[in-house]
Structure formats: C-alpha cells, structure tokens
Amino acid sequence: MNKITAHAVNIRTLLNNKYTVQYYQREYNWETKQIEELIEDLTNEFNEFYKDGDRQIDVRNYGDYFLGPIILTNDNAIIDGQQRLSSLTLLLIYLNNLQKQQTSLPKVNIDNLIYSEMYGQKTFCINVTEREVCLASLFETGDYDITNEQSESVINLYNRYKDIERIFPDELKGSPLPVFIEWLIDNVSLVEIRTDSEQDAHKVFVTMNDRGLRLTPTEMLKGYLLSEMDDNTIRNKANDLWKNKIVQLKEIEKDGDADFIKNWLRAQYAETIREGKKDAENKDFDIIGTTFHKWVRENKSVMGLNSSADFEKFILKNFRMYADIYIRLKEYSRKFNKDYEYVFYNADRGFTLQYQIILSAIKSDDTQDVVNKKIKMVSCFIDQFISIRIFNFKTVDYSSIRYTVFNITKMIRNKDIKELAEILKRYINNMELTLEGIDGFYLNQFTRRYMLHILSRMTYYVEEQSGINSNFADYVNREQKNPYDIEHIWADDYTQGNHQLEFSTEEEFKDFRNRFGGLLILPKDKNRSLQDMEYSKKVIKYDSENLLARTLNQNCYNNNPLFLCFMNNTQLPFKPYAQFNKAELIERQSLYKEICKKIWDVNKIDVLANS
C-alpha cells in the first residue's frame, strides 16, 4: 500500500473542491431519519455555544464538531463519504435560499462551496451529471419537479431537501442564521483520508469497517441483562426472543433497534432532562439518547431490576410487549390504517416524538384492548396538539418542544383509560392557544410544510363524511407521478377581477391571496394549467376535482344527496360562489375554521376511550 495521509478539514476547505463518484456507488440513498439526525446533531451542538446577541465574529470562540471520516483518492474520487457530502451540499443550498429570504440579515457567501460556474453551467461539489438539473433548480428556486424523474438518487435528493426545509429549527432562521452558517463551514470538520490509488482507498475502507467491530449499545444492553439471569434455560429463551425482535426492528429501519430502546426507556423510566443552558449536565433523557446501556446498569434499582426474576420479566414480558407495540406503530406510520389513522397523520407531519409519548401511557400489564385504545387516544391527542400549535404559527420542531414532550410523557405515564382521557382533554383545553387562531392562518414559509397536510385532511374529511371513497394518503404522497399541490383560488394577477378596487397595493393583495380560505389542493398538472385563469373559469374546472374544490361550484349542491345530508347534519356553512372576492374569501376562511373544529374536536378522545 502506498502513502496514506489523514487530517481534519473543515467544510469551507472540503467543499471548495470538486469530487467524482465511481459509477458503482453513485446512488444517493439517505432517508429522512439520517437527515433528521444530521440536522439535530449540528443544531444541538451549535446551541451549546450560541448566545443571544452573538455575531459572526464570535464564532472564532466557539467549539468544533466532528462529522466522521471520509476516504478519497488524491484525484478526488470519493470512496466513502458521498452520502454526507451530498447531504451537506443540500443543507448549504437550503441555507443559501434561507438567506435570500432574510434580506435584513448579513449574508454569508457560500456559493463557491455549492458550485462553480463555467460557460454558464453550474458544476456542483459532487460532480454527478444526472444530479445537476435537480441541484441547479433547488439552488435557484428551492424546488424541482420530480413528476417524470426516473433517477432514484435524484428523487431522494429532492425529498431530503424538503426534509431539511421541514426539520431546520425556526429559532435559527432569524438573527442566529449567519452565525450558524459561519460555525458550520469553519468549525465543523471531517477527517479526510487520502490515498494514491482507488485500490488503496478500498483497502482502508475495508479495514475501517470490517475489523475490530465494537459492540453496539443494544448488544451491550442485552449482554448485561442476560448476565443477571440465573437460569440457563430462561437465559437462552430470553436471548432467542431478543435476537428475533431486534431483527424485526432492524427490518423497519437501519437503527430501528436503538431507536425503539431509546423511545421505550424514555417513555417508561426517564425522570429528568437536561436544562437548556450552556454547560448543563446531561440527565436521564439525554443519557438514554446516547449510552442507554450504561444508564440501565446505573439505574437498575430505579427500574425495579433487583433480582434474576426481574431481569427475566424485563425481557420476556416487557421488552417483547413494547417492541411489538413499537413495530405496530411504525407500520401504522407508513401505511394508512383507518383504525389508527392519527399515527399516520402525526408521522406525515414528521413528528417522530409520538412514539415516546404513546409508549409512556401503556402499562406492561395492559390488555390488548386497553393498549389499542391508548394508542388511538394518545395519537389523537398528539394530532390535536400539533394542529393547534401550527394554526397559531408555533413550531413543533424537536429542539423547541422537547421539554414540553418530556413533561407530557411523565404526565400520562402508565395511566388507566379514564384518567388518561381526563388528562389529555384537560391539557388541550388548558392550552393558551386554540383553534381560533385559524382566523389569521395563512400560507407562509413556516406553514408551507404543513398546509398540504391540513388541506388534505379537510378534503378527506368532507369526502369521507359525504360517502365518497377517499384516500388521505394519496393526497399527501409526494412521490407519486402527479402529486397534489396547493392551489390558490385567486390567480397571481393583481389586475384581475376587483382586486385593484379592494386592495390599495399589489403587496396587500398578494398577502391576502395566501390566506387559508383562499386555498385548495389539486393534482400538480391541474394546478399548473389553472394557475393564471380567472375565477369564473376556474370554478367550472373545480367541478371535476375533489369535493372541497367542488363546493365552490353550484353543481355540487344539485343531485348530491349524501353531501347535502352531511352539510345539514353538521350545519357547516358551505355555499357556492359565482364570484370570489375579498368578502367571499373571508367567509370561506370561516367555513374552513368550522371544518377544522370538527376534525380536531377534543371530545374525540372520549369517543375513542369508550369505543
């Protein structure tokens, strides 16, 4: 093997180069979970150093963060690390687009870390031809049409960019943004391992990944638990059970075993959480997130693990039961199941904390019927909690509500059905925020990631209640050939209709156009074909679309008995509109609020408890 060099390189230096990827490893296959972990790790580390009022120059006193090694040849071929470098490129593109919106803030020039340009063409950091159109579109507009896209890598790039849009914390989008960017490019480093040849690079890769593998926290936890059992026969039975469940958990996702154990231990046993200030000490919640095997060993008495029989029960009963429930929850989050619909709704909005909250309410001796009710009740509560916050422009990002979620977890831990229902309803009713916030709800950068979900819920609700075989999952599926998009009822044309009479400026018109009551969902191709059309023509086209869109047209109220029955039973103020001006939009917003009150009715928790 020829000479090998290794040294730490920050992102500013690392991405100020162009890299190639061998044809046999060109697929970009990171999933949402990996992007979530990357953003969470980076933003949490940044928050360790950042203080209100800090400026870019203060970054020189911040600590560094290590993102692991990458393996390159001396001619810049990537042998290991393209997933991270591709993801960092997506993050920089997103941050650059965020800077374009925040015009009042200092701008950090990171264009050269994203692409170089020659003869009018952009070449991106990782030079793979099939990706260039997508990356260029994301860089220029923050969007890309994947309707006819054939490349799985390009589709993944687009979806992971949208994940970053959804996940990136709102609190870093204001004055901390330029400080975060400076810290990211100067203080976040990777170890760059370089070799003279591709063959040598592969040898390094094999050595790093195949030799001297350390046990994972899951394996160390299993070893400890089994070592505390006296009976060999029972120990072997517990070992077989553990291995079987771990296989099932890993089939769900790569680190499904560790994710389950963290959620389970936090749900059932964590009593403390780290304070949100610099240099604060890690507590139960935080330690379980990193070294749960050590935490269990040090807290065995608190967990009731005092004898061999306790350890046997812990695996043979508790581990089995909670793992099976977690596997069910993951299945419900991926495939819509009407009986457990709220789990799917919460997952669609990226709320991964729901698993911890749901598991906390379930006692190890609950019957299957009780377990089922608790899953439904708690997931319904979470759906309402998320919706109320969003309608009032409050984030549900991990970093912002981790304390709230931790307190909810402890509050409902191991409660029986009746008490659980009372606690969940009381919590919603005592929130400072309410669904009245819908009066001022509109489409903006924050609500964009949730608006399609909300409009799809409303569409699905109206159709289902009117006897139409509707499918919510189809409305929010972004990976189908012709996905649904948000439709503005008003065209983006200030000169149409009465807009110039009703609004003193075009800017005022554009703001009003984004209000909740002026929005629908339509398939992307229909949305594009109608976008410049005036309302009198649009409303005719709406009559062949989903029921929420059809309610604008008079034909919806003729020969439609099931819809009319639904309208009469609920007293929802539906009405058709021959014209749709400012007053009509305000009226439609009031209708939307009443629909939302039906969908997110706190009394549904009682209905589920008594079902």
Characteristics of this structure?
28 helices, two-stranded antiparallel sheet, 9 strands, 611 residues, alpha/beta, 5-stranded mixed sheet
Give the mean pLDDT: 90
Strand order in space, largest sheet: 1-7-3-4-2
Biggest β-sheet description: 5 strands, mixed
Number of strands: 9
- Tally of distinct domains: 3
Identify the overall geometry.
Answer: globular
Strand-residue proportion:
5-15%
- What share of residues is helical? 55-70%
- Rg to the nearest angstrom? 27 Å
User: How widely separated are the two ends?
Assistant: 69 Å
Structural class: alpha/beta
Helix run count: 28
Poorly predicted spans: none
Structural write-up:
This is DUF262 domain-containing protein. InterPro entries: GmrSD_C (IPR011089), GmrSD_N (IPR004919). The chain has helices at residues 11-14, 32-49, 82-101, 111-114, 132-141, 152-167, 177-187, 198-210, 217-227, 232-252, 256-268, 284-298, 308-334, 341-348, 354-361, 368-391, 398-412, 417-430, 448-465, 472-476, 499-502, 506-513, 524-530, 535-542, 547-550, 561-570, 582-599, 604-609, and strands at 4-10, 20-21, 65-73, 77-80, 115-118, 121-124, 188-195, 484-488, 519-523. The chain is an alpha/beta fold. It folds into three domains: 4-210, no CATH class; 217-437, no CATH class; 438-599, no CATH class. The strands form three sheets. A five-stranded mixed β-sheet has the order 1-7-3-4-2. It has a two-stranded antiparallel ribbon with strand order 5-6. Strands 8-9 form a two-stranded antiparallel ribbon.
